[in-house]
């Protein structure tokens, strides 16, 4: 079986596992606002799905996205999710011989997209107290070369949950401007942050802001997101999109409805995930050897280091798998630092997190010393 078939079969096993507790994908499992459900039901009742959506997205959705970001002077191009946006940007602005700079850890797929068009990828390590788990602008400046075409930052960072400060974003924007490089600011987790600064406000000429409805609104399976940039960049992207017949009108109707009710619905989601973080932190602090290097997290997930407890991330993930709980081993995110941590998603029902923390002491003991090859979710 080919590798892509193996990956697909692996994921098919996940989605067909009854009662799986999804604590590994940063997906939002909060109950949707009735207005979002009604928008989807209306789309089905009216059989609106027979028609194509506008190629750049519904105008109300495009306006709602830039308004949500506070980037009303820029334009939005609706996509089939943030990953599709990233694919589109990498294939439009990178060529063979160009350089793509990002962090380690980062979101891995854009690196694959860059390599697929012949660009080289450079990663700047940010894991560790010595780096503050963030990208220091001076380290980016030292990594820039004349071949640097794109700088890609996930902010807040997945999987670490750190967010750049306003001063850091300003400096990163200045560095990219001086280099003439495009800056992809992947803001998938922006809505969960305690504070967040958009690079597009500092560097509108060449910043591409990636927006997602998968996480804050919980529409991961509907695949709807956007790229936000100045009109010239959007014009270039719109000239050869991966999907010139428009993203799912069903998904866009849900996204429009979500933006309308965001102010009354999302605060409870945010409060719930932050309380879930607190419960996990208390449980971790009670177990010798476990450590949460970033707390509180600016994402809807937390990282837990397991090495000083004598436990490999894979072993602990395997133990939770026996209880139908999916968590992520660090190697899913980074080959360099993956042996140090697990990641646990927290925009989930409280009972899922409670089960996770109740099991933690016993499963740490069971996982200690276990090092055989393990087939994970």
UniProtKB/TrEMBL annotation:
Keywords: Aminotransferase, Pyridoxal phosphate, Transferase. It holds the Pfam family Aminotran_1_2. Its cofactor is pyridoxal 5'-phosphate. Its EC number is 2.6.1.-. It comes from the Bacteria. Belongs to the class-I pyridoxal-phosphate-dependent aminotransferase family. Residues 22-358 form the Aminotransferase class I/classII large domain. It comes from Aureimonas fodinaquatilis. InterPro entries: Aminotransferase_I/II_large, AspAT/PAT-like, NHTrfase_class1_PyrdxlP-BS, PyrdxlP-dep_Trfase, PyrdxlP-dep_Trfase_major, PyrdxlP-dep_Trfase_small. The keyword Transferase applies. This is Aminotransferase. GO terms for biological process: amino acid metabolic process. It catalyses: L-aspartate + 2-oxoglutarate = oxaloacetate + L-glutamate. One of its GO terms (molecular function) is L-aspartate:2-oxoglutarate aminotransferase activity.
């Amino acid at each position: 079986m080919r590798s892509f078939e193996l990956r697909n079969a692996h994921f098919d096993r996940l989605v067909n596992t009854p009662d799986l507790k999804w604590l590994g994908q940063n997906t939002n499992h909060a109950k949707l606002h009735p207005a979002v459900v009604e928008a989807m039901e209306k789309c089905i009742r009216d059989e609106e799905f027979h028609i194509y959506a506008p190629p750049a997205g519904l105008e109300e959705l495009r306006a709602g996205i830039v308004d949500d970001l506070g980037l009303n002077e820029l334009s939005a191009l609706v996509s089939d999710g943030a990953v599709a946006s990233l694919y589109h940007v990498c294939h439009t602005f990178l060529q063979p011989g160009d350089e793509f700079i990002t962090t380690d850890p980062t979101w891995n797929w854009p690196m694959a997209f860059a390599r697929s068009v012949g660009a080289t990828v450079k990663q700047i390590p940010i894991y560790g107290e010595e780096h503050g788990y963030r990208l220091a602008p001076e380290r980016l400046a030292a990594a820039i070369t004349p071949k640097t075409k794109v700088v890609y930052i996930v902010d807040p960072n997945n999987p670490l949950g750190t967010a750049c400060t306003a001063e850091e974003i300003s400096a990163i924007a200045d560095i990219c401007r001086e280099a003439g490089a495009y800056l992809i600011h992947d803001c998938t987790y922006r809505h969960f942050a305690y504070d967040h600064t958009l690079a597009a406000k500092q560097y509108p000429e060449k910043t591409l802001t990636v927006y997602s409805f998968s996480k804050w609104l919980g529409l991961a399976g509907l695949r709807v997101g956007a790229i936000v940039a100045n009109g010239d960049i959007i014009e270039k992207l719109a000239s050869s999109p991966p999907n010139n017949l428009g993203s799912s009108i069903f998904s866009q109707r849900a996204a429009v409805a979500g933006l309308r009710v965001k102010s009354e619905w999302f605060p409870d989601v945010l409060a719930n995930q932050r309380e879930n973080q607190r419960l996990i932190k208390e449980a971790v602090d009670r177990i010798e050897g476990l450590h949460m290097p970033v707390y509180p997290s600016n994402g809807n997930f937390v990282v837990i280091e397991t090495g000083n407890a004598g436990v490999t991330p894979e072993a602990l993930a395997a133990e939770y798998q026996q209880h139908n709980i999916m968590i992520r081993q660090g190697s899913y995110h980074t080959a360099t630092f993956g042996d140090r941590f697990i990641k646990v998603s927290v925009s989930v029902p409280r009972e899922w997190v409670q089960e996770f923390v109740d099991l933690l002491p016993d499963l740490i003991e069971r996982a200690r010393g276990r090092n055989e090859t393990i087939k994970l979710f």
